[in-house]
Write a structure and sequence with these properties.
about 750 residues; 8-stranded mixed sheet; about 35% helix; Fungal-type protein kinase domain-containing protein; Pkinase_fungal
């Protein structure tokens, strides 16, 4: 999040994400103000109930009043705003979801912790009516059905996360809000807002009056989750915090300011880290668990009366500046109407270049997958158009920012191969060499037998790019300070292979990884190419007779090399690879030049992961599970520490077994094999540390003038020659450990 988040004015966010012109939104604001929307009985009662509930720390008490207010705004606007377009999805509702856990579609026992319970979701009335007919709801015990409705991430158009007011100066702030709302209802100028930043003593909390909030549709029954709050809410604003996490950007010619509140910008509000994590988790689940049906996603964070809108796509987050929905109610109501006016394209559901199975699909029911969708591709050798129809989902990348790769089984008309086929759909960086071109470079070399077979491909750069949509409206593409990465949609039809983890056993593990090491070596020294993303999910296989034949898959991050071993073309400044299997050096120094030894080290971690986790289907004990989780789910520093420990303070790999590296009993016969593999990297890192120490001594002696520059240059050259020998030892893995 820290590396991929932008801030922008709210009126520009609304214009770009929701596709609603600023002047139209402003006309709605004027209409709401003229027609006195705030005097509506349901809205007035809901706002008062919300403010009274906000005086407590019971977060769930905020949901119903907010839903009632938001739904009434949409209903009122439909009947009273002249020229308002018909809502494309006519039965959208803001519905309480908490404490319902949204179904992520993953199997039981999946290591990824995704127990997500969004507070309020934007779904259709049609979906609400259908929930009780879903198998997950019917199979749940009656007493638990309020937590198991069967709602899926694909059902949700957008969501809102509500948090109580900060405890700091809550009472005084609430008094000011209530006075501001009362003044607005009476048509008077509201009082200036008190600051939420703590100063002085904390005033006494006023006693709330009991107000009956109007009924709203529920996915969960109220009052059934008394233990909902597991933590005390943290402050929403921090004194002196900076509004933006990004470096200063070039000044842009933004549209006229009509949304931002001077008060909130002057306070430099920043969202507490805990709330940011919630929003990032929801975005991760939405983009990863909707089976390729979402290109992007937007959501809303409400803390007390402060509102912030979030947009997420393959390049990261764009967050709006904040407003107070109570003090600037007409503006907030206009944004709610703009959300209701969104069609499939503005909800990220209009997948370009894919035709739905039926043209008359109900717009109130989002697609649950891309099964049945079709596209047309040009066969490169037959020179004919081929219709490609998607079947069942095979794989969806679990990632917040990246390529968002999605793989489906396909059938083709006319048939292009007797073998089963899949289509790989991803959002690729336009500045990198396409995968199909890299695979073509290996044709004619022996290593091509270990690479995937591609039949058809197409880059949809002319039909669709990020810059053609929201990103193009948000940012100037020629900005040298620009941080988002331009991407286009790429489709490739491959022969279908099977994941290697389903076949690795005690009888073939050495054979499989010997093939991998040969493959990496030949790519580097015969094809002049590095893969740069060696991970378990990128290792596939096919059976050739009785032999397990390794297929090295996914060349999205691969690069060609020049005669000096340096990448040709775009390189990027971020880490290359999959974090659980990434080299220790690349985790520690992401700017480091990617070398063959980094891919070989990733191969070691993949082998080690297999030795700990496999064989599949067997129950894994706590010690082995904890080691894998330390590579997969912890923070970056914790992962680095856990992996670096493997190559530190040990004279033998056997000292790590079974304590720090609990090898599965089935693979214990490979301990000598692992020891040889480990020894290469242990020796290499020891020599690398000695090399850095020698360089530090030379720099110190030069600084204190014990040696002159010519002497220092000679010593550095000698040290680098020793380092070259060390690099050669890193590369000589095959002969060092294979048994």
């Amino acid at each position: 999040m820290d590396e991929s988040t932008e801030r922008m004015p709210l009126r520009l966010w609304v214009s770009a994400v929701l596709g609603c012109p600023v002047d139209r939104v402003q006309s709605w604001v004027d209409t709401f103000n003229k027609e006195r929307l705030c005097e509506d009985d349901i809205i007035g009662t809901s706002v008062q109930a919300y403010l009274q509930a906000a005086n407590s720390e019971r977060e769930e008490a905020l949901y119903q009043p907010f839903c009632a207010m938001a739904n009434r705004v949409l209903e009122w606007a439909r009947d009273h705003v002249p020229g308002l377009p018909t809502y494309p999805i006519p039965d959208l509702l803001f519905v309480r979801n908490d404490p319902v856990v949204v179904d992520n579609g993953r199997e039981e026992g999946d290591n990824r912790d995704a127990d997500c319970k969004p507070d309020i979701v934007l779904i259709s009335q049609t979906t609400c009516n259908d929930l009780e007919n879903r198998p997950k709801y019917q199979q749940a015990p009656p007493r638990k059905r309020h937590k198991t409705t069967g709602v899926d991430w694909c059902d949700i158009f957008s969501l809102l996360e509500l948090k109580p007011f900060p405890t700091s100066r809550r009472a005084a702030y609430l008094v000011g809000l209530i006075a501001a709302w009362s003044s607005k209802v009476r048509g008077e100028e509201p009082l200036p807002a008190p600051s939420l930043v703590a100063s002085g003593s904390r005033p006494q909390r006023p006693t709330p009056s009991s107000l009956q909030s109007p009924g709203v549709p529920l996915l969960s029954e109220p009052g059934t989750n008394s233990n909902r709050l597991k933590r005390k809410p943290e402050p929403f604003v921090t004194e002196g915090a900076n509004q933006s996490r990004k470096r200063p950007r070039a000044k842009r010619n933004y549209l006229p300011e009509i949304y931002e509140s001077d008060y909130f910008l002057s306070e430099k509000c920043s969202v507490a880290k805990e709330f940011e994590d919630h929003m990032a988790r929801y975005a991760l689940e939405m983009l990863s668990c909707t089976r390729g049906t979402r290109l992007f996603f937007f959501q809303c964070l409400v803390v007390g009366d402060i509102v912030e809108f979030w947009y997420c796509d393959a390049s990261g987050f764009v967050r709006s500046y904040q407003i107070s929905w109570v003090r600037e109610f007409d503006k907030f109501a206009a944004i709610l109407v703009a959300i209701a006016c969104c069609d499939y394209a503005h909800f990220g559901l209009d997948i370009p270049n894919l035709s739905p199975p039926a043209p008359d699909l109900n717009p109130s029911i989002p697609p649950m997958s891309l099964t049945g969708y079709s596209t047309t591709m040009r066969h490169p050798t037959l020179d004919i158009d081929v219709k490609v129809t998607l079947g069942s989902e095979v794989f969806t990348q679990y990632s917040l920012v990246g390529r968002h790769t999605c793989v489906y089984d396909v059938t083709t008309e006319p048939p292009v191969s007797p073998d089963p086929l899949v289509i790989k759909m991803s959002l690729q960086s336009v500045c990198r060499t396409p995968e199909q071109e890299l695979l073509a470079l290996a044709d004619g070399f022996p290593v091509s037998e270990h690479l995937p077979k591609a039949f058809m491909w197409t880059d949809r750069a002319t039909e669709w790019r990020l810059a053609h949509g929201v990103r193009g409206l948000m940012f100037l593409q020629n900005d040298e300070d620009e941080t988002y990465e331009e991407r286009c949609q790429r489709h490739i039809v491959f022969k279908k292979y099977k994941p290697i983890e389903s076949v690795i056993s005690s009888s073939n593990m050495d054979h499989v990884f010997n093939q991998l090491l040969d493959c990496l070596h030949e790519l580097r020294y015969e094809v002049n190419m590095l893969h740069r993303d060696i991970s378990l999910s990128n290792l596939m296989y096919e059976m050739r007779g009785t032999v397990v034949w390794l297929i090295l898959n996914d060349f999205d991050l691969a690069t060609r090399l020049d005669e000096h071993g340096r990448p040709l073309g775009a390189t990027g400044s971020h880490r290359m690879g999959t974090l659980p299997f990434m080299s220790v050096d690349l985790i520690k120094h992401p700017e480091m030049l990617h070398l063959l030894r980094h891919d070989l080290e990733s191969a070691f971690f993949v082998a080690l992961w297999c030795g700990i986790r496999l064989p599949s289907g067997q129950k894994i004990d706590a010690a082995r599970r904890d080691v894998l989780l330390s590579w997969e789910q912890h923070g970056l520093n914790a992962i680095l520490k856990a992996k670096a420990q493997i190559f530190a303070n040990s004279d033998s790999f056997f000292q790590l077994v079974p304590g720090e590296i609990p090898i599965s009993p089935e693979f214990c016969q490979y301990e000598m094999w692992f020891d040889g593999f480990w020894k290469v990297f242990f020796d290499g890192y020891q020599k690398l540390a000695d090399h850095h120490r020698r360089l530090a001594v030379i720099q110190r002696d030069l600084r204190v003038k014990r040696i002159n520059e010519n002497q220092a240059e000679g010593l550095i050259k000698a040290a680098n020659s020793c380092s070259g020998v060390m690099q050669a030892r890193f590369g000589d893995i095959r002969s060092r450990f294979c048994i």
